[in-house]
Write a structure and sequence with these properties.
The protein is built from seven helices and eight strands. It is of the alpha/beta class. It has a domain of about 180 residues: 3-Layer(aba) Sandwich (Rossmann fold), CATH 3.40.50. Helix 5 packs across helix 6. The radius of gyration is 20 Å and the shape is globular. About 20% of the residues have low confidence.
Length: about 260
Amino acid sequence: MEIGSPNSQPSFICVHLYYLVELQFSGLLGNKPAMKNKVLHRHARIKPAILVIAFSVTIASVRAAETPPKPLFPDAAPVCPCESLARVSLPNTTIDSAAIDSSDGSCRVTATVTHPPSGDRVKVFIGLPATNWNGRFRGTGGGGFLGGSANNLRGPVTQGYAAGATDTGHEGGSGSFALDASGRLNWQSIVDNAYLGIHEMTVVGKALTKEYYGKAPRYSYFVGGSTGGRQGLMEAQRYPNDYDGIVSACPAINWQRFLPADLW
């Protein structure tokens, strides 16, 4: 039974390796015996077997995501030219380009979503297989302060997914987007990066998928790790109807703990 089918419940797979693991792998604990003893004592219940299971679940999830699923719609094919998607009208959204990717023959769409009057610009990247669409939509996440990238689309599209990615409103992996030109907190950019950008990518991606194939995806999934894992958690909490299943591997959460630990 596939996740999201009428007899199943929306599913959420979360693998969260506690920040203790981050400390151990970075070598920080090994050089600070006092801190190591304090942290290990506090988290004595974290057994090696649990960590092995967590890593095993992560690897199994990734391998499962790499296996192309069976098509849900026999002989699914585009009902319109890729270039015609440039004329699709969506709220607060401008379609910047829609063209066939010469490297794999897929339809690639770039769009910009705004939230007036803030003046923000959330870039959305959508990949649509020209053949062998499997009937599903797959959202992808980012890493660090990088919201995501169009490069994330190639793997899912090759597997037959209609897929989406977004920069969540800023370019590059710097956290400077959080401040405006005057040095004050830029709350719209913070919100775009925190959760809204991924949601907008999902809305635009599903709409373009329906326009291109003449039918909406039957199931939708989100797959991400680290920042992508955090994005998956936010989707599950704020927009539970966006996806039928979420793989949230090693989500970068509890920042008030792991960032000071990293600085230490």
